[in-house]
Design goal:
This protein is α+β, with helices and mostly antiparallel strands and about 375 residues long. The chain has 13 helices and eleven strands.
């Protein structure tokens, strides 16, 4: 009886520890993940405030999804007692970790005007914004393409104001060549970038900059952030993955990044590629073929030709076995995590489903049915 009781208690303790470990991992991941903000806000921290009051204010403004976890993270990082009074700019998608660092680091700002340079996959867009004191949110004054023929008067005006803030927002999935070209078009930066940075080594994120900042120094900061993310993702990898180095993880993450823009799908897309690698199947993913055609220098701007699908390049996964030799873009945190913690599925196929997402399949027969549905959707769209 006592042995049975001891055995049951041991089992209970093992399960409890396993569940506790899962909760801790979830908390760490959520604390460091992208936040819910879709646009910058200014958060006020009055003198005498505590972390509980500020966390609730941030939740009310939509900057954090879980104020209790925000407070726990601040306490764990030993920053609860370092809260600074002032006015702080919180950029879009800022994680709880970033916000805690912002409001405890000091250096209050007026949050009056800001210029955001958005480096995307297809273009670079500059936005001039001004804080609305009534809402604590920024309103857009002007939007333009840097380096174009027309520069808005509002941009010229705020460039002359000493308290204007500048920020670069780097999207997931951009290539290193696109980043170098985009930074070269921004008149707020100085210096040259001698070579295209190694593909995949730049962290998609939001970067505060100051006029006259070196382009090379900014690239170095992007590389440092990505190196930290890569190391963290690799340390948290599932066992028995068909990838053996952080470099291979980065390649796989870049393919996941380019294959889907639907956050909920990343784990499933990752599972398809992991299953294919485990079974010795070719990855057969179009974004790698496109990279073989463009080598990351711009957007293809058209559909792939059959000749390109058959052409042997180091990146054409319809031709080569396994992973290509380099990443095909700069992946974000979510894609890195998906690469090392894919969902457990038997999927080996997927195709667009007409909604922006994909239909997944375990067998070729199921996949052919999904492809037929997708072709029907395409035909209907052409006829409308």
């Amino acid at each position: 009886m006592w042995r049975s009781l001891a055995s049951n208690m041991l089992t209970f303790l093992v399960v409890a520890l396993f569940l506790l470990g899962g909760v801790i991992l979830w908390g760490q991941s959520t604390y460091r993940a992208e936040g819910p903000l879709d646009q910058a806000i200014c958060v006020e921290v009055p003198r005498g405030s505590n972390m509980a009051q500020v966390s609730q204010r941030l939740a009310d403004q939509g900057a954090v999804s879980n104020p209790a976890l925000f407070r726990l993270g601040a306490e764990y990082a030993d920053k609860s007692g370092q809260l600074k009074a002032g006015s702080f700019l919180v950029p879009p998608q800022a994680s709880m970790e970033v916000i805690v660092d912002t409001i405890t680091r000091g250096g209050a700002n007026t949050c009056g005007t800001e210029v955001v340079y958005r480096i995307g996959v297809t273009r670079v867009l500059a936005e001039v914004r001004e804080l609305d004191p009534a809402t604590g949110r920024f309103v857009e004054l002007a939007e333009f393409l840097p380096g174009g023929d027309e520069t808005p008067a509002d941009y010229t005006r705020v460039r002359g104001e000493a308290d204007t803030r500048y920020r670069i927002s780097l999207a997931e999935g951009v290539t290193s060549w696109q980043v170098r070209e985009a930074l070269g078009a921004l008149d707020v930066l100085e210096g040259e970038i001698a070579e295209v940075p190694v593909e995949g080594t730049l962290a998609p994120d939001s970067y505060e900059i100051v006029p006259g900042e070196s382009r090379a120094d900014l690239i170095a900061e992007m590389q440092t952030r990505q190196a930290v993310r890569v190391a963290a993702a690799w340390a948290a990898r599932d066992p028995d993955l068909p990838i053996s180095t952080p470099e291979e993880m980065l390649v796989l993450a870049s393919i996941i990044e380019k294959e889907t823009g639907v956050a909920e799908e990343r784990g499933q897309v990752a599972s398809v590629f992991v299953n294919r690698l485990n079974r010795g199947m070719r990855l057969q993913t179009d974004p790698t073929v496109i990279y073989g055609v463009t080598e990351g220098r711009g957007v293809l701007g058209r559909g792939l030709r059959q000749s390109e699908l058959r052409r042997a390049t180091p990146w054409n996964t319809y031709v080569i076995q396994g992973l290509p030799p380099t990443p095909i873009a700069n992946p974000g945190i979510a894609s890195l995590q998906a690469a090392v913690q894919p969902e457990a599925t038997d999927y080996v196929f997927f195709v667009a489903d007409g909604t922006g997402g994909h239909a997944f399949a375990e067998t070729l027969e199921q996949h052919n049915q999904n492809v037929a549905r997708w072709r029907q959707i395409e035909a209907e769209r052409r006829n409308n």
